[in-house]
Amino acid sequence: MATAELEGKTVLLTGATDGLGRALATDLAGRGATLLLHGRDEERGAATLTEVADESGSDRLSWYRADLASLAEVRELAEAVGRDHDRLDVLVSNAGIGTDVPGGGARQESADGIELRFAVNYLAGFVLTERLLPLLQRSAPARIVMVASLGQAALDFGDPMLAGSLYEGRRAYAQSKLAQITYAIDLTDRLGVDSGVTVNSLHPATFMPTKIVLDERGTSVDTLDRGVEATLRLAVDPELDRVSGRFFDRERESRAESQAYDPEARRKLRSLSEELAG
């Protein structure tokens, strides 16, 4: 792929200070993007800005701090991006937490009282996307990329916050990832194929050597480069200009857990999301 593919384009990347996000940041910056880097730690953000600038040679980098466990901070992030930029061509919703980290897999809640993995991995991205959607539409053609996982589980809409059952971090994680995929399909249906905004999700690679994976497993399987290439493809490949509402396993289009394709489940998830997001 040519290095100038993203010249003149603005890209927001969440979870940019570690793992896949950190590796993807350098790649995107090197392709000429005006890159908006998000994270929740100011010190790590400053270090990431310096490192990405040094590695890519780019001077078109900005830092935005927000804790995605707080919907107020997610809204502030969207407002800041909209205030500072008159276009947004790509949103990569990458930030997330794993099955056991933090909390050793114990049930935790966000600042808003929402089960933590659902809040960070899915609901924050839902709110951020909805808030930035007008800007993405004005910038069309634009792309939204949801970094999800092959680890998926159907949501129990009778107990979506897993408050009344034996809590498992693995199930909470898998539910949150399926919610991302389901939302991408639902948003595609809402926007229509001619909107100029595509929304796709993917499993970027299997057990990459990220902090989450190494803390939880101790070993990795795929390389970070594999995940970067798969994610980058959804963000820039011209062959995908009109492809939307799809789930990819790395570079290959795949099928998610069946609940994602159920219109009634999509309606319930949207209703739940709007209720939780206020």
Straight-line N-to-C gap: 42 Å
Radius of gyration: 17 Å
CATH topology: Rossmann fold
Number of domains: 1
Average pLDDT for all residues: 93
What is the global morphology?
A: globular
Q: Give the count of helical stretches.
A: 8
Mind explaining what this structure looks like?
The chain has 278 residues and is α/β, with parallel strands linked by helices. The protein has a single domain (10-277), classed as NAD(P)-binding Rossmann-like Domain (Rossmann fold). The protein is 44% helix and 14% strand. The protein contains 8 helices and 8 strands; from the N terminus they run βαβαβαβαβαβααββα. The model has no long low-confidence stretch (mean pLDDT 93).
How would the blueprint of this fold be written?
Layout: E1 10-13, H1 19-30, E2 34-39, H2 42-56, E3 61-65, H3 71-84, E4 90-93, H4 116-138, E5 142-147, H5 169-191, E6 197-203, H6 211-216, H7 224-236, E7 247-249, E8 252-254, H8 263-277
Parallel strand pairs: 1-2, 1-4, 2-3, 4-5, 5-6, 6-7
Antiparallel strand pairs: 7-8
Helix pairs in contact: 1-2, 1-7, 3-4, 4-5, 5-8
Q: How do you describe this structure in short?
A:
The chain has helices spanning 19-30, 42-56, 71-84, 116-138, 169-191, 211-216, 224-236, 263-277; strands at 10-13, 34-39, 61-65, 90-93, 142-147, 197-203, 247-249, 252-254. By secondary structure, the protein is of the alpha/beta class.
Top keywords for this entry?
8-stranded mixed β-sheet; 14% strand; Rossmann fold; 278 residues; globular
